[in-house]
Amino acid sequence: VSHFEGITMAPPDPILGVSEAFKADDHELKLNLGVGAYRTEELQPYVLDVVKKADKLLLEKGENLEYLPIEGLAAFNKVTAELLFGADNPVIKQQRVATVQGLSGTGSLRLAAALIERYFPGAKVLISSPTWGNHKNIFNEARVPWSEYRYYDPKTVGLDFEGMIADIKAAPEGSFILLHGCAHNPTGIDPTPEQWGVIADVIQEKNHIPFFDIAYQGFASGSLDTDAASVRMFVARGMEVIAAQSYSKNLGLYAERIGAINVVCSSPEAAARVKSQLKRIARPMYSNPPVHGARIVANIVGDSALFKEWNAEMEMMAGRIKNVRHKLFDSLSSKDKSGKDWSFVLKQIGMFSFTGLNKAQCDNMTNKWHVYMTKDGRISLAGLSLAKCEYLADAIIDSYH
Ligand code: PMP
């Protein structure tokens, strides 16, 4: 009998488990709209040309593979903060940002969670309802208490703005408010700039700490600056802000695990102390981060020709997703005779669309139509082609009614 007899089987991951089920299906029309990874119109994975070029340059330079410092590659940490806050943001000049390279968005969030657990005992993190499924896991594993604020309104398939504001107001002073910088996952519903202003007002009033998860900068609108506007607005108000970044989507570096955690502090001394503690947390977890993705990002941003090329490819990817979104809306509107208003599909932004399908309807999508998706009704438009929009519309309409 095994020493591990007492260990029970863990449930499959609700997002990554979808890909496993997809692989096991051999139907020719099957579609994987589960995981959020960009695909070409031919539904193939995509490596950015600019990444291939940067890779080639790295190989030519023949850099060594010695350990990075605990906080990561200095050149990466510099450019990643500049990309997020803007290169001429006073918080950078004043050295008020603690930036530490993390294991992509997930690992960066996990570092911030550990910092909260250690230095803000009992403080709560407020997360949107719904949110990316891994947020709850991350805070649970870090033993940080969390609760939800209202976000999604099923009646309008839009934002429950009043509910959101009321719940942020009602949270104990000094709570951490987790916000999706752009392209909210899973709903695709973002606050308007005016609504962001009101959210910042309430957070400031209640002395809360805004905690941004920005996993789609440049990938939502096609512009790095537009997608960072929410974060920059909070920083411009002089607030202290936490922000976790990811290069999985906007540079297609999913498997490189490259991202960063940034803590904007009100003084350079505080930033230095925070950074020292983030390093102390990272050291016994994974010692130091991987170098390759960090070099790719630093080299692309540091070279004006490559940077331009990256921006063009980002626009292309965001553009393909927007085209698919329009085609899906057109297909739904023309095929559905029930009079249902599908305009919510067009109002959403980013790689996801929240369809409003419930769990039983999602099961119908998968069992009858071989469309693989998470059970919350989310579909990844990045995994959809123009050619498959009509088929998907048929599946959604059949499942709804
Ligand atoms: N936050 C959100 C909201 C996400 O959607 C994702 C990617 N699915 C991440 C963080 C982190 O992804 P990664 O760890 O690959 O950067």
From TrEMBL:
Domain Aminotransferase class I/classII large: residue ranges: 30-396
Gene3D superfamilies per the UniProt record, alphabetical: Aspartate Aminotransferase, domain 1, Type I PLP-dependent aspartate aminotransferase-like (Major domain)
UniProt cofactor(s): pyridoxal 5'-phosphate
Single GO BP term: amino acid metabolic process
Stored InterPro entries: Aminotransferase_I/II_large, Asp_trans, NHTrfase_class1_PyrdxlP-BS, PyrdxlP-dep_Trfase, PyrdxlP-dep_Trfase_major, PyrdxlP-dep_Trfase_small
Pfam families with a match to the protein in the record: Aminotran_1_2
Record bears the keyword Repeat: no
Catalysis: reaction(s): L-aspartate + 2-oxoglutarate = oxaloacetate + L-glutamate
EC assignment: 2.6.1.1
Keywords of the record: Aminotransferase, Pyridoxal phosphate, Transferase
Catalytic class of the enzyme: transferase
GO molecular function term, any single one: pyridoxal phosphate binding
Family: Belongs to the class-I pyridoxal-phosphate-dependent aminotransferase family.
General remark: In eukaryotes there are cytoplasmic, mitochondrial and chloroplastic isozymes.
Reported function: Amino acid aminotransferase important for the metabolism of amino acids and Krebs-cycle related organic acids. No activity with D-Asp or D-Ala as amino donors. In plants, it is involved in nitrogen metabolism and in aspects of carbon and energy metabolism.
SUBUNIT field: Homodimer.
Record-given protein name: Aspartate aminotransferase
Organism: Gossypium tomentosum
